[in-house]
Amino acid sequence: MALIHSTPTPTVDPSNPNISRWDDIGLMLIQEFISEDDEATMIDAFHAQDPLSEIQGNLKKRISQHFGYHFDYTTFGASETRFTPVPAYITSFLPRLPVQSPLPDQFTVQYYPPGSGIPPHVDTHSMFGEALYSLSFGSAVPMQFRMSGANDARKMRLPKRSVQQQQQQQDGGTTDPPSASPAVPGEQHRQPDDEEQHPVWEVLLPARSLLLMTGAARYGYTHAIRPRKTDLVGGRTVPRQGRYSITMRSVKRGDEIGCGCAYPGVCDARIREEMAAAARKGGVVASAE
Ligand SMILES: O=C(O)CCC(=O)C(=O)O
Ligand SMILES: [Fe+2]
C-alpha cells in the first residue's frame, strides 16, 4: 500500500501569495500564472487543431501537440529539421517564466480526457535542461511525486521497450519506466517496494497554475498523474475533468548533452554509459574466448 502524504506544507512567497515553494525538493508552483481569457484562448487553439468531436471517440488516450524543436529519439537529440513554430499564446508568457536562461524551446501541449493520467516517470536527463515546467489549464489535478528507488532504476534498465513506450517518448521526451506500460496503467503495474520506501507526495495543480521542477524533483523524483475517475481535494471527492497541460523543456545541444546529477539510478546518461561499458566488457570477454 502506497504511503500517500498530502501535500507537504510549502513556503509561501511573502511578496506574492500565489507562489509556493517546496525548496527541499526543488518544486515551485505559481497559481493564476495565466488569466481565464488566456486559458480559453489556449483551449480553443488546441481544439482548432484537434476538435473535441474527433477526440471523443478515444476517451482514454492523451492527445499531444508539439511546438518548437521536436525531440528525435533516433539521435537522442533535438531535431533541427522538425520545428513547429511556437504559437503566440505560448511565446507571450515566456518573459514571465522564473528561469530565463535557458528558456524552453520545446513545448508539448497535452489533453488528458477525464480519468486519464501519465505513468510515473523521470523526464530524460541528458537531453533537456534542468528547469522543467508544466502549465495546467482546463481543470485541476493532483500530481504525485516520489523519490525514485531500486525498482524505478531496474525498470529503466530493462532492455526492450515496447513500440507504445517509444511512441510515448516521442510524444513527450519522457522516460517512462518500461513496466509502466500501457500509457494509462492499471494498479497491477504498481511496484509497491519503492512506494513503501519513499512516500508519495501529492501536489494539487490548479487550473492556470505553473509548476517548475528543478533539482531533486526534476532529477531524482518520479512524477505521475494517476488515472482516476475522482480525486480527493481538500477532503472532498471531485470528479476528474478534462485537463490540458503544456510541458516545457529546453533542449541541450553539443557539449551540454549529458548529465552529472546525483541520481544515477534513473539517469538516462548514466544508463547509456553503463550499457556501453557492459558492451565493451562483453566484447573483450567474447574475443578472449
Ligand atoms: O501533464 C503534466 O502536467 C505533466 C506531463 C509530463 O510529465 C510530461 O509530459 O513529461
Ligand atoms: Fe514528465
UniProtKB/TrEMBL annotation:
Residues 156-197 are annotated as: Disordered. GO terms for molecular function: demethylase activity; oxidoreductase activity. Residues 98-252 form the Fe2OG dioxygenase domain. GO terms for biological process: demethylation. It comes from the Eukaryota. Pfam families: 2OG-FeII_Oxy_2. This is Fe2OG dioxygenase domain-containing protein. It comes from Chaetomium fimeti.
